[in-house]
Amino acid sequence: MEKFELLEKLNELKTELIKSPYWVAGTVIETTRKQSKKEKPFYYLSQSIKGKTKTTYIAARHLEVFKKAEAEGERIKQLMTEINRINILLIKSEVSDA
């Protein structure tokens, strides 16, 4: 790719990032727990932060929003990987132009 095409693609990816609604990095876990001798559904977000697992309770009414945010987080991760790749190519082209 030419430098102009790389910069154009980079701007497209940045625009995608800006348009993104809520997103989270982590995994939504759906499980059950015993409460008053009955199995009841239980939901939480599991994240690895500084090498430690952090869990955040999710109310049932927020479950679908968190699932969408988790999927959006994966998409953001892919966008960032592509931005990283393009940045590397641009940096290399700057060095070779000097």
Description of the structure:
- It is a single chain.
- By secondary structure, the chain is α+β, with helices and mostly antiparallel strands.
- The protein has one domain (3-97).
- It is 53% helix and 29% strand.
- The chain has 2 helices and 3 strands; from the N terminus they run H-E-E-E-H.
- The protein has a 3-stranded antiparallel sheet with strand order 1-2-3, covered by helices on one side.
- A hairpin with a 2-residue loop joins strand 1 (27-35) and strand 2 (38-49).
- Helix 1 runs antiparallel to helix 2 (63-97).
- The mean pLDDT is 92.
- Residues 7-64 form the DUF6788 domain.
- It comes from Lentisphaera araneosa HTCC2155.
- This is DUF6788 domain-containing protein.
- InterPro entries: DUF6788.
Which percent band covers the strand fraction?
25-35%
User: In whole angstroms, how far apart are the ends?
Assistant: 19 Å
Structural class: alpha+beta
**Major sheet details:** 3 strands, antiparallel
Principal-axis shape equals elongated
Q: Supply the number of helical segments.
A: 2
Task: State the helical fraction.
Answer: 40-55%
Index terms:
98 residues; alpha+beta; 3-stranded antiparallel beta sheet; 2 helices; 3 strands; 53% helix; 29% strand; elongated; DUF6788 domain-containing protein; DUF6788
Blueprint of the fold:
Elements: H1 3-19, E1 27-35, E2 38-49, E3 52-58, H2 63-97
Antiparallel strand pairs: 1-2, 2-3
Helix pairs in contact: 1-2
Summarize the structure.
The chain is of the alpha+beta class.
